[in-house]
Design brief:
The complex is a heterodimer.
Chain A: E1 4-7, E2 10-13, E3 19-25, E4 31-38, E5 42-49, E6 56-57, E7 64-66, E8 76-78, E9 87-94, E10 103-104, E11 108-112
Parallel strand pairs in A: 2-11
Antiparallel strand pairs in A: 1-3, 3-8, 4-5, 4-9, 5-6, 7-8, 9-10, 9-11
Chain B: E1 3-6, E2 10-14, E3 19-21, E4 23-26, E5 31-38, E6 44-50, E7 56-58, E8 64-68, E9 73-78, E10 87-95, E11 102-104, E12 108-113
Parallel strand pairs in B: 2-12
Antiparallel strand pairs in B: 1-4, 3-9, 5-6, 5-10, 7-8, 8-9, 10-11, 10-12
Classes of the chains: A mainly beta, B mainly beta.
Chain lengths: 113, 114
């Protein structure tokens, strides 16, 4: 059963702590993306990666970091430098055959206390 | 700057009513357009997409959208909504030269009452 998994579904952290969100896909997709979803603002792109060991900043990359050591994995770290980290985080991927259609994971809701 | 705007943030309808959700984009070049839906507790999923060709696009669950280039619009329609259509709907666009980066509208929350 192919798809994108994100874990955990809910995550709570204290202010000032770094936290890493997991995103794994078994679709053999080349490109992967991280979005942040806030009420009334839609989704905003944080980082994306077209191939292994390469990634680019999106529109709101400040306070976040990523790695792409394996094709199937694209973890996102929310650092203490992110001023307003509480949000819903979505991971997506695209195949080489259809680079315009993104498939999304179930998301992780991060709450910073 | 490239952007996508959705006119209605909240829409409330009764079952069997017709639905039209507005979406406009700002960009004069080649654009690919999408509608995604997020049902309560579920993944964001693709409803339909337009890349080129027939400007009237049919998607899943009876939804359709019309691309009107002169109006920079891509409105979503359904002739008769059901309670199960209650969800949040997002219009999105990717622009030429943007490497498939999707720009999303703010979303429209649709509530359908029986």
């Amino acid at each position: 059963d192919g798809g994108i998994t994100q874990s955990p579904k809910y995550l709570f952290r204290k202010e000032g702590q770094n936290v890493t969100l997991s995103c794994e896909q078994n679709l053999n997709h080349d490109a992967m993306y991280w979005y942040r979803q806030d009420p009334g603002q839609g989704l905003r792109l944080i980082y994306y990666s077209q191939i292994v060991n390469d990634f680019q900043k999106g529109d709101i990359a400040e306070g976040y970091s990523v790695s792409r050591e394996k094709k199937e994995s694209f973890p996102l770290t929310v650092t203490s430098a992110q001023k307003n980290p509480t949000a819903f985080y979505l991971c997506a991927s695209t195949s080489q055959e259809d680079t315009d259609t993104q498939y999304f994971g179930p998301g992780t809701r991060l709450t910073v206390l | 700057a490239q952007s996508v705007s959705q006119h209605n943030h909240h829409v409330i309808l009764s079952e069997a009513a017709s639905l039209e959700l507005g979406c406009n984009y700002s960009y004069g070049g080649t654009v690919n357009l999408f509608w995604y839906v997020q049902y309560p507790g579920q993944h964001l999923q693709l409803l339909l997409k337009y890349f080129s060709g027939d400007p009237l696009v049919k998607g899943i669950k009876g939804f359709e959208a019309e691309f009107i280039k002169s109006k920079f619009s891509f409105n979503l329609r359904k002739p008769s909504v059901q309670w199960s259509d209650t969800a949040e709907y997002f219009c999105a666009a990717s622009f030429s030269g943007g490497y498939n980066k999707l720009i999303f509208g703010a979303g429209t929350r649709l509530a359908v009452h029986p």
